[in-house]
Amino acid sequence: MVTKLDRLGRSLEHLIDLSKGLQARSVDLVVLDQGIDTSTAIGRMFFQILGAIAEFEHALMSERTIDGLAAAWARARTGGQKPKLTSRQARIAQEVYDETGPDGKRRYTVTQIAAEFGVTRPTIYRHLAAGHHSEQAPNSPSSRTLRRPARMLTVASIRNRVR
User: Fold this and answer.
1) Which of 38, 89, 100, 153 is most buried, by CB atoms within 10 Å?
2) Distance between CA atoms of 85 and 129, rounded to whole angstroms?
3) Is the pTM of the predicted complex or chain greater than 0.85?
4) 51 burial level (CB within 10 Å; 0-12, 13-18, 19+)
5) Alpha helices in the chain (DSSP H)
């Protein structure tokens, strides 16, 4: 006994296999919310119809998500949070980090720099690491992670990213 069919399995194939396994053990399936009882022929048919509709609904939802991601990529929207530091602030953080005192040691610690900008230490470390890559060629592998590649994205390429 289960309350909803979609809570029982993820695909129509899985639901049918589960139903056959239960039938082989002489166990009937009753779905309370949809009024399905697999002990009857009409209940088994209804079970398969609702399972197919649930799978179709899931496929539509996945396609809409993929289409939305493709549209966002086309508008240069990549999702996630906005950067904590602007490129100017990151450059200043790098300059402050590179400053040395008369003894040859770093003048400011990452903790001090982070406190000054109101961010966490990992944020400063991320920007410091990104600053070292900016001196490389524009198409080097490490510089590609810093900016979105300038290429046309298709729904198929978004599907490959999602999977």
Assistant:
1) 38
2) 14
3) no
4) buried
5) 12-24, 41-74, 87-98, 110-117, 121-133, 141-144, 155-162
Question: What are the tokens at 5?
Answer: 């069919």
- Terminal alpha carbon distance of the chain: 33
Q: In a structure prediction context, what are the per-residue pLDDT tens digits for the chain, which is 163 residues long?
A: 888 777 777 777 787 778 778 888 988 888 888 788 888 888 888 877 877 887 888 889 999 999 988 888 888 877 778 888 998 999 999 999 999 989 989 989 999 999 999 999 999 999 888 875 444 444 444 433 333 444 444 555 545 554 5
